[in-house]
Prior knowledge:
The protein is α/β, with parallel strands linked by helices. It has helices spanning 16-24, 48-53, 68-78, 91-101, 118-135, 211-222, and strands at residues 7-10, 29-33, 59-63, 82-85, 106-113, 141-146, 172-174, 195-198, 203-205, 208-209. It is built from six helices and ten strands; from the N terminus they run E-H-E-H-E-H-E-H-E-H-E-E-E-E-E-H. Helix 3 packs parallel to helix 4.
Amino acid sequence: xxxxxxxxxVCGMTKKEQIRDLIALNVDxxxxxxxxxxxxxxxxxxxxxxxxxxxxxxxxxxFVNESVEKVIxxxxxxxxxxxxxxxxxxxxxxxxxxxxxxxxxKIMKAVRIGIHDAVSKEQHSEEISEQIRAxxxxxxxxxxxTDSKGYGGTGKRFEWSxxxxxxxxxxxxxxxxxxxxxxxxxDTISHKPFAIDINSKFERTPGDKDLDRIRExxxxxxxxx
Length: 225
């Protein structure tokens, strides 16, 4: 891919035919949101048995402040390859989840980055670094997303240059307002993401993806210079 990107994740899937289209596009990770307050809550549209039947190696479940037991139950019944924690899960929670899940399921922790003025930017960077250090031994990936009261889905991007001030010891996913118009700005980041995570900028309505827009995006990021 271009810009040093190695993988692509499309999150917030709710429709069977669109999932089939993404598989045909060879998208690396397909995200299902198991957070009831999300407009993309997958259980309003699909069953765990159906998700289990999907033949794809990158099925990812997104959870927000859910009990460890429930996360494990859903992950097993849905046949998930990765658990994405997008809430306020702390070091103790993640360590417990890792012990119960083992290493057969990958774990990704979302770190939310706010929009700050120059004075507080350095302090915010240190806070983010502390969050990463606290969980880095028990997760496989970090995901950086724009901070919001609703735990994601803002369609807004944070200042990507802040990532260059962080020590990021794990491969990371970049999320938050990524679109065809700003993907070229990845050239400004020294520490490139392992993957990008797209969602709301590629929808007609929440959970209803615009596949033509995604196909165009995929075509562009796979082009060689």
